[in-house]
Amino acid sequence: MSFEQAAQYLAKVVPWDGTSWVNIHTLFKPANHQAGKSFAWGGRACKTLKDAISALEYAAKGADVRDIYVCLSSQSEAKEKVSAKGFKWHLPERSTRNAVALKSLFLDLDAKGVDKNSYANINEAITALGNFIQAVKLPKPSIVVASGGGLHVYWTMMRALTVQEWLPLAFALAEATKQHGLKCDTPVTVDAARVLRVPDTKNYKTDPPKNVRIAGTPTDFDYSVERLEVALAPYKRALPPSAVITPFADPLLFPPRKAIAGDNEISEGVDTSRGKSAPINLDDVAPECAFVRDTITSGGKDNNNPLWGLTTLLATFTEGTRADAHRMGDKHPGYTKESTDELYDRKVKDRTEKNLGWPSCSAISAAGCKACQDCKHFPKNKSPLNFAVRSSPDPAVASVGTGGPSQSDLPTGYSRDPDGIVNLKMVLPDGETNYVPISSYTMTDPWLQVNPRILHFSSIVDNKRVEQISIESELINGMGMRAALQAQGLMLPVGKNALDNIGRFFVSWIKKLQESKESVSSSAFGWNVLNAKLEGFVYGGRIWSPTGDRAAANPDPVIARQYAPSGELQPWIDAATMITAQGRQDLAAILASAFAAPLIRFTGEPGVLMSAYSSASGIGKSTSMAIAQAVWGDPVRCMQSLSDTQNSVMNKLGQIRSLPMYWDELKTEEDTKKFVGITFQVTQGKEKSRMTRNVTQREPGSWQTLLVSASNDSLLDFVVNNVNTTTAGLYRVFEFAVVPPDPKTQIDTSVASRIKAKLNDNYGAVGLEYAKFLGVNFVKVEADFAEYIKALGREVKTSPDERFWIALIASVCVGAGYANQLGFTKFDLKALKAFMLRVLEKSRQHRNDSTVDLTKDISLSTVFSGFMKAQMGKHILFTNRIWIGRGQPPRTGVHVIKTVNDPSRLQGIHVHIGVEDKLMRISSTCLSEWCKEKGYSRHVMLEALKKELGFKEIKARLGSGCGPTVVQSVEYLLEIDLAGTPYLNFIDEA
Predict the structure, then answer these.
(1) Is omega for the bond preceding 15 within 30 degrees of 0, making it cis?
(2) What is the DSSP letter of 17?
(3) End of a domain among 828, 849, 870?
C-alpha cells in the first residue's frame, strides 16, 4: 500500500496540533485466538501526520491485522508502552472524556442491502446522499470514502472545534438525517470519539476483503463553521445532559489534563446518573413508550443494529434481564441466541466498567426511532424506564380498589386507593376489615426536609390543581396544625377525631420516610448535603445527583412558585445572545453571574458581592440583570425590591442558598446605605437566629452565593466613606462601571424590550439544565474549579485579603465557560477574563488610595491628625512639661509647671501637651466619642496607635500641676511620648 490517499484523508479530517494524540487503531487476531471469539484491539497514538503514516505502514505488515481505523478526535491521553526490545511507543486511550478537538462532521451510510436500514448498493446510497444534501442545503462533502460496505461522508472545517462546539452541530446533523429519511448510523454522527476506516487499507469484514478508498475528488478547501451552522440551524435541539461531558478549563491557565482517578467515562447517549435503582418490569414501561411496546410486539424485527444494541442494554436494567433481551430481539434479522447472549454479556460489562445508566430517549431517537418525536415524554430528556407505570396495591385494599398510585411510602396499617386517598385499616369487633379515609384530599409523593424539619407531599386542592403541601414537624399534633393545613387549601372536618387521625398518620408517615434516604432532603435550593457529604444540586423540585434524581424540598410556596421553571429554553438563549453579541464585557459579567453563583460553594466563601454602576440610563445593566435572573426564576418577582425588609432578604437567601440574588435600581443614598448593611451580613453566610411561634430556637438559614447590585453611583465610595478604620468593606465588594455603548452599535430599545418581555413566561429552563449538569458532575466540577482558582491566584499574585475578589472572578469565568459548553451562551471567555482582571487592578488601586486602613501609617496619620485638629484652639492645653510625680509640683526650680497657652480660653481640656518633655496625654473618653461620631472603630484606632506610638493607658488628671482652676478630675488617659514621631508638629501649634 502507498497510503497516498490515507495521508490526504488524515490531513483533512483529523485535527493536528502537535501536542494532542491522533489514534490509529487496528483490529487483529491474537496468537491464542479461538474460533467464535472477538478480535482484539491495538494501535498507535501519534502526534504528527508522518508518525501516523508510519503507524499505518507498520500495521499493514502484520499478517493478523484485520481492519485499520482512525479516531476522528484528537485525544489528550495515551499510555506509554515499551516493547521487549526496549522500543517505546504509545497505546491509544480513546474515550469521549479524553477528546480534545474535532475537525469534521461525518455520516456512516450502509450499502450492503441486508435490512431496511441499509441501501441496496453504493449507487442508491449516493443518490440518497445527494437528495439529502440538497434538501438540507449543505455544501458538497469535503471527502467521501467508499468503506467496502457503504459510504463515510465528511464535511471538514477550517478550524478544529472543541467537543462542546462540535456536539450541537453533530446532533443537528443527526436530526436532519432523521427528518429527511437518510438511512445512516446516527450514533456514529454524534460520537466524539468515533473511529472510521482509513483509505488505502482493506475492509476484512467481506470475503474477499474490499479496498477502502476515497470516492471521487475531494474538495480543495475546508468549510467555515458558520457555513455549516447556517445549514443545520433548523435542526438544532437542546442537547441531552449526557452529551455535556468535558469540564471547563481555561487553556490560558492550564492545558487539558487527565481525568481525576475514580471518574467514569460518560458514554454518549446513555444517562450515567441512573443504573443503581431497583430493576424495572419491562411490561410496566410498554404502556408509556411506543418504542418498547413495538419492540416487544415485533421482536425487534424492524430495529436497526444501534437500536438492537440499546434494547439489549435496556434489558440489563429490567426484571427479566437476559430473557427481555431475547424477546426484544428474537425477530431481528441478525438474531441468534449465541450472538444475543454475547451482546448482553458485553452490555453488562459496559455497565460496570463505564458506569452506564438507563438508555435515554435522546439516544434511542438518535439511533433511528421515529416514534420518539411524537412521544409526550421525549422533551423531558429522560429514559423510557423513568416512565414505567408501577402498580403495587396493598392486597388489603381490594375492597377499596386496585391499581393506582404507589403504596411503598405508606406506613403499616395504611393504604392508598386508586384516587390517591389514604385509608386507615380498621378491624371491627366481628372480625371484618373496614377502610376509613383519613382525609378527603389526596396525599402522594411525600418527602422530608431536614433543615428545618418539614413534611412535604402533593395534594389536589382548588380547581383540581396539584399543590405542594408543607407542614413543620413541630406543628404536627399541635394547636397550629389545622391552621397550617387549611391555609394551604386542605380544609379539615370539624372535630378532634379528624385532626388526631391525620396527626397520627403524619407521625407514622415521617417514621416510614426516615427509613429511606431517597425521601429526605436538607436544602430548598442549591447544593444538598446528606450525612456531611455533598449529594447533588436541588432545583425544579428535584435533587440532581450522580446516582439519580428524587423529590426535594420547596418549603416556602411563594418562593417555590417564583423559582419554578416555566416555558422553553430558546427565548432565554435569544435574550442572552442579544447581550453577548454586543461585545460589552461589563454586561457579560452581569449575565455570567447567574452561572457563577452555584460555584461560590467551591471558593470556601459564604457570600460574594458584585456591584455594577452607572449614572446613565438605558445602557443595558438592568436588562442584563433581568436576563441573568431569568436563568433561575421569574425576572420580575424574583428581583429584590427596595421595600423588602432586611429580615425578608435574609430569609429568602436562606432558602435559595446557592442561587444568585439580584438587587436593581439603587438610586438614593438611603437605598445604598440599606444595601451596604445587608452586604456585610451576606458575607457571614447565615441569617440571624430567631424564635419560632412556640418560643423555641429556629434553625437559621445559611447560604453560599453571589449577590449582584446595579446602582446609579459607586457603591464602593459609600463603603469607604461609611465603613471606616479598615479595608474589610473594600474587599467585600467587586465593583465596575458600566460604560455607555456606542450609539452606532447600540441595540434598538424596542427590539430589546420585545426579546426581554418573552422571559416573563420563559424562565428557569436554563437553570434546570444547569442544575442537572452540576448535580451529576459535582465531583469533577469541584476538582476543576479548585485547579482553576489556584492557577488564577498564581497568575495574578493574590494576597489573602483579596480572597473575595479572586473567588468572584474565578466563579464568573468558570460559570461562563460551563454556560458556553451547555450551548446556552456564546461568551467571549478570553475577553471576559481580561475585563475581570482589569477590574481587579482598579480595585487594588482603589484600596491603595484609600485612607481608611488604620493598619497603614499614612492612614493613621491622616485620621489622628483629624482628631488633633478638631481639638486645636479649644481643647488642647500646652504647658512647658507634664507633671508625672505624686502630689503637687514645686513652685520654684526646673520642675515648675508653666502654661504656654491661656487655659481660660479653652472650652474644656481633652488633650494636654508638654512642650519641653514632648509628652502628650489624651482623654480616652473624648477620643472614643470622636471615633464614634466619625464612624471609626475605637478598638482599631487604639490598636493602631499602640503599634505605631507605643502609648500607655494611665489613670490621672489632665492639667495636673496647673492649679485648681485648670486641673481636671481623675480619668483614664492615653500617654504618648512624641519624641521621634511624626506628630512633633503638634507642639509647634503652641
Answers:
(1) no
(2) -
(3) 849
Q: pLDDT tens digit string along 245-268? A: 443 333 433 333 333 233 322 233
Helices (H), 162-206: 163-179, 186-189
Tell me: the pLDDT tens digits for 119-173?
A: 999 999 999 999 999 999 999 999 999 998 899 999 999 889 988 889 999 999 9
- Rg (Cα) of the chain, in Å, rounded? 37
Q: Report in angstroms the alpha-carbon separations of 693 from 475, 478, 480.
A: 10, 12, 9
Whole-number average pLDDT of the chain: 80
Residue 248 lies in a domain: no
> Degrees (nearest 5) of the Cα angle 285, 552, 695?
150
> How many structural domains is the chain composed of?
5
Candidates 435, 439, 404, 402; CA nearest to 419 is: 404
What b/e sequence results for 887-923 when a residue is b if at least 16 CB atoms lie within 10 Å of its CB, and e otherwise? eebeeeeeeebebebebeebeebbbbbbbebbbbbbb
Determine contact, residues 468/540, Cβ cutoff 8 Å: no
CA 851 – CA 37 distance, rounded (Å): 79
Helices (H), 233-316: 282-285, 290-298, 305-315
- 769-797 pLDDT, tens per residue? 999 999 999 999 999 999 999 999 999 99
CA distance 679 to 920: 40
Q: Are residues 823 and 885 in the same domain?
A: no
The answer to the question of residue 444 being in a domain is: yes
For residue 452, give the DSSP letter.
T
- Residue 277, in any domain of the structure: no
pTM of the model: 0.48
CA–CA separation, 62 and 304 (whole Å): 33
Which of 202, 217, 237 represents a domain boundary (last residue)?
237
* Among candidate residues 710, 628, 644, the one with its CA nearest the CA of residue 678: 644
Residues 503 and 596 in one domain: no
705-711 and 607-613 strand pairing: parallel
Same domain, yes or no: 763 and 806: yes
Measuring CA to CA, which residue among 682, 702, 526, 527 is closest to residue 611?
Answer: 682
pLDDT, tens digit, for every residue of 635-654? 988 887 655 555 666 667 77
d(CA 189, CA 104): 10
* Domain identity same for 709 and 799: yes
CA distance linking residue 678 with residue 607, whole number of Å: 11
Q: Is 570 inside any structural domain?
A: no
Helix/strand/coil percent split, the chain, to 5: 40, 20, 40
User: Which of 94-98, 359-363, 474-478 is the most confident on average?
Assistant: 474-478
C-alpha cell at 862: 491622616
Domain that holds residue 173: 4-237
Distance CA 652, CA 633 (A): 13
- SS3 (DSSP) at 736: strand
Residue 21 to residue 44: CA distance in whole angstroms:
9
CA torsion sign, 839 to 841 to 842 to 848? positive
